[in-house]
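Reopening this one. Same input as before:
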Amino acid sequence: MKLTDISRQLASAFAAVGVSGLVLVGCSNSSAPEATKEQVNETETTTSGETNSAAKGDIDPDHTKIVIGTTEGDFADMVRNQVKKTLEDQGYEVELVTFTDYVRPNLALAEGDLDINIFQHKPYLDTFKAENKLDLVEIFQVPTAPLGIYSGKKTKLDEAFKGMSVSAPNDPSNFARALVMMNELGWIKLKDNIDPLTASKADIADNSKYDIKIVELEAAQLPRARDEVDFAIINGNYATDAGIKLTDALFQEPSFAYVNWSAVKASDVNKKWVKDITEAYNSDAFKKYAHDSFPGYKYPKIWGADDKAHMGNSEEKAADTTKTNTAASESEKTK
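Same output, byte for byte:
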């Protein structure tokens, strides 16, 4: 199955998958349903050292306090370390509420306990709001730790060999993503016209090139089992939790489908405070902070061509390496 075919099917496939089948990337690993409120400290300084472009007091007069909900971890750190200071400098009061589950952030948003949440990719949001009849809308993407292929016993993609073992997450959603990645590399061929969100072993049309032994493991076990397989496909959040640099990935999924989004109530979309927080997350200061703090992440598609201007040398090199590996995989598939 060709990459272009898979990309074309992603949008139509999202709405057909249940929430239970869509596992989030880059979120907290805990499933305990807890929420923690954090009041901002206006004396903290921004990590970027840059002055916010918005004038002090230039805020939404009808909405002077913004309550942001995230899962604990990188998304919460983005608020604590950068975004809240930008909004405070503009004159807003900011409160961060962190969650350790993936259900309550959307319910809290719909019920008015949050103004905006940041924790989920669009397939999850689309299915959750449809199943729960919630009037929520995505606003902007945020940097997200992607699924990647990492070295095991082998350290380069061109060391792939017939009979090799590749570990992959065993939950249906992420296993499907792993199959799509192997298809993109030319390691396997998937059947035409399959749903890429629900791809399974039964959808493999041809595994004869490398006769890959796919080892399915709990996602959290994948980093610890790298030395037992030739290559390991690992979720970004579990990679970072295990101290693995995302820039060490041999290949990352090229799709932006699983980059996480912010969400607000549909009735708030055109309000000034939404515009202001959108600008905070897409400012030069935030881009620099994101590249310095989260190298190897998948960045918002809208950042586009000027994205590279904010990269450090090591990250720019990693990005170039990923492009090289992608080009190599395309060449491999044409053989």
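So the earlier flakiness isn't reproducible anymore. For the record, The longest strand covers residues 65-71.
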